[in-house]
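Quick one, tokens below. Sequence please?
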């Protein structure tokens, strides 16, 4: 019997890469999606017929427990969340419910229904916020600077608590920003890639952005989903930082994206104060020594390769 993996957040960026990789290894993969007025399966359409889908919602405990009863997973990847930092300021309670309590609803089900299942929680570098430590690793201080980050810190501590109190094999991957052509269009990297391609084609005049000075450690989502699996296949459950160890400013990202279409970003980018975050995280840069040494994990795509992958994907979309 192949192992069964359950992925919450299957319709998101990471869910789609992770599902592909697990299916290719021969696992049975069940994806949890929530009911919407119209399905948004564009990232997983190519997996139809291989991937099993079930409906449940992080807000609804009964639906999650029913799902665990039915699927009896060996591995659970909790990727579902309200994941967009700006929305967490306008919808902090929903964010706490989905991104924080949603994980607890799942863990409560795991300990009652399938306590041998191994659980991966999608923690985030945003938890470090404006930490005095740089680069940040598993021992760095959390100074969360958004309702999203606060909800992730809560979930992160609950994973540790369930591991210690109930002996669950539950781990958190503290992943730094990871991007791809499947990133949601409201996220900065995809927004810039889309704009560069459209401006190149004369379909957009300019791009409005907020602060160009924050620095982030950007990697490729497909590399990071490999690390998630490795974390569930170690002997002892522990948390891991996953990062490239290289940081760049937002301006670096913008410049590289426009250079990928032979344009000078300064001719097309306007700053819009309305797009400034209520509290900004200045610098996130990870140190993934533990992931390298224990998991043997290394990123395969570098900053330049990632920018070009995303811009070229948008050019092809425009061309299509
Ligand atoms: P994403 O593209 O925004 O996907 C989020 C997923 O969560 C979507 O499938 C979404 O479903 C689902 N979801 C949201 N609310 C739900 C609810 N109430 N019930 C069930 N499902 C719900 O995020 P991602 O980039 O793949 O990231 C995956 C996880 O890693 C998230 O938890 C994110 O916070 C975390 N993370 C991401 C990064 C990054 O740089 N990408 C870094 C660190 C941590 P719909 O499609 O229906 O909206």
């Amino acid at each position: 019997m192949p192992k069964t993996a359950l992925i919450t957040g299957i319709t998101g960026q990471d869910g789609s890469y992770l599902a592909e990789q697990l299916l290719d290894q021969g696992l049975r993969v069940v994806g949890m999606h929530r009911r919407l007025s119209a399905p948004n399966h564009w990232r997983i359409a190519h997996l139809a017929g291989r991937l099993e889908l079930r409906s449940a919602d992080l807000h609804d405990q009964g639906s999650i427990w029913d799902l665990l009863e039915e699927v009896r997973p060996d591995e659970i990847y909790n990727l579902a969340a309200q994941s967009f930092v700006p929305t967490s300021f306008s919808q902090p309670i929903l964010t706490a419910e989905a991104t924080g309590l949603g994980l607890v609803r799942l863990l409560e089900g795991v300990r009652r229904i399938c306590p041998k299942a191994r659980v991966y929680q999608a923690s985030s570098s945003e938890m470090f916020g404006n930490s005095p430590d740089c680069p940040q690793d598993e021992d760095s201080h959390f100074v969360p600077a958004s309702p999203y980050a606060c909800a992730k810190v809560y979930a992160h501590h609950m994973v540790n608590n369930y591991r210690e109190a109930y002996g669950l094999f539950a781990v958190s991957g503290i992943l730094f920003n990871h991007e791809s052509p499947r990133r949601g269009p409201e996220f900065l990297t995809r927004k810039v890639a889309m704009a560069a391609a459209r401006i190149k084609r004369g379909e957009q005049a300019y791009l409005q952005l907020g602060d160009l000075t924050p620095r982030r450690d950007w990697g490729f989502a497909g590399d990071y989903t490999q690390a998630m699996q490795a974390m569930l296949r170690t002997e002892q459950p522990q948390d891991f930082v996953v990062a490239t160890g290289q940081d760049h400013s937002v301006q670096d990202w913008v410049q590289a994206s426009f250079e990928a279409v032979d344009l000078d970003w300064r001719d097309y980018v306007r700053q819009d104060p309305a797009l400034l975050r209520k509290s900004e995280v200045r610098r996130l840069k990870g140190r993934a020594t533990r992931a390298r040494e224990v998991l043997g994990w290394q990123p395969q795509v570098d900053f330049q390769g990632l920018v070009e992958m995303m811009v070229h994907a948008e050019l092809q979309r425009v061309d299509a």
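Residues 4-178+218-242 form a domain with the Rossmann fold fold (CATH 3.40.50.720). The pocket of NAP is lined by residues 8-9, 11-15, 34, 36, 40, 57-59, 79-83, 98, 122, 124, 175, 177-178, 184 (CB under 6 Å).
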